[in-house]
Design goal:
94 residues; 29% helix; globular; Alpha-Beta Plaits; alpha+beta; four-stranded antiparallel sheet; 4 strands; 2 helices
Length: 94
């Protein structure tokens, strides 16, 4: 299993309860694909460098996880269809 870092930008229109539900859903997706969440950080609401979907702010989360390379496309596919996720980036840690 390889170490990865997942950075999420969530829609600011989501309530804090819906944000928690969305993060739990993402955690569940990671665990279903035999991954392991190691650390979760909320970076808070920040101004975006450029508007995304006509929004100027986003709520940032950073998740450290371990997963196999076969699990990444499945996690990626789930993140693409989530409505509350404006942008995301998965990078491999050295």
């Amino acid at each position: 299993m390889t170490d990865y870092e997942l950075t999420l930008v969530l829609d600011t229109d989501l309530s804090s309860e819906n944000q928690k539900k969305l993060i739990e859903k993402i955690k569940k997706t990671i665990e279903e694909n035999k991954g392991k969440l190691e650390k979760q950080e909320e970076w808070g609401k920040k101004e975006l460098a450029y508007p995304i979907n006509k929004k100027k702010n986003g709520i940032y989360f950073c998740l450290a996880l371990k997963a196999s390379s076969e699990a990444l496309p499945k996690i990626d596919k789930k993140l693409k269809i989530e409505e509350g996720v404006m942008r995301y980036l998965i990078i491999r840690k050295e």
